[in-house]
Amino acid sequence: MSNICRSPYCEYVFRKIVEEDETLSKNIDWIKSSAVFNKSFKINSKAVKVLTDEGFEKEYVLAHTPTFKYGKGKAYFEEADIIIGMTKSNKFFLPLKYAKKFALLSVLATGKYKPIPDPVLIKDQDKYRRAMDEIKAYLTAYADKLKSEFAG
Question: Between the CA of residue 23 and those of 20, 32, 94, 145, 152, what are the distances in Å?
Fold first, then answer.
């Protein structure tokens, strides 16, 4: 929704998963996060902590600039083959012309819908990390499915 927590986390982690796998890197050439709306100008500090704890360079993480549909993000929606959301409500905020591109991360990963809560209001860093670990598990499962599709 705002491209400061879940979305940039997904962008960085999924990009790393893709870069580290030959099959995925041959078939996926562009991963970028964007939001439907945004009033923030920087990535959430708890997301920065989680990403740097996972080995990403702090400068690399801090280079993230939140984008949204009325800025550079509009081009991302246009160029995307798939727009991945975390909850069903994400689709309702998406401009109608992009609805056919929309998919839910939990469904892509497991075949079943489970809303992925926005951790932005989580105060405790450990609880925040656990929320992001759940997202990482979905990203890993989705990557495994894509590898199977690309190999077959």
Answer: 9, 19, 31, 12, 11
Q: Do residues 82 and 105 lie in contact, with contact meaning Cβ atoms separated by under 8 Å? A: no
User: Per DSSP, what are the bridge partners of residue 104?
Assistant: 85
Alpha carbons within 13 angstroms on the beta-carbon side of residue 130 total: 5
CA distances to 34, 49, 74, 94, 107 from 97, in Å: 16, 36, 12, 8, 21
3 state DSSP class of 29: coil
**How far is the C-alpha of 31 from the C-alpha of 16, rounded, in Å?**
10
Q: Where are the beta strands (DSSP E) in 20-121?
A: 83-85, 102-104
- The pTM for the full model equals 0.89
The model's pLDDT over 93-111, given as tens digits with 9 standing for 90+, comes to 888 888 999 999 999 999 9
Identify residue 81 by its one-letter amino acid code. Answer: D
| DSSP state letters, 126-137 | HHHHHHHHHHHH
Q: CA 135, 47, 29: angle at the middle one, nearest 5?
A: 60
Q: Which two tokens stand for residue 136?
A: 């990482």
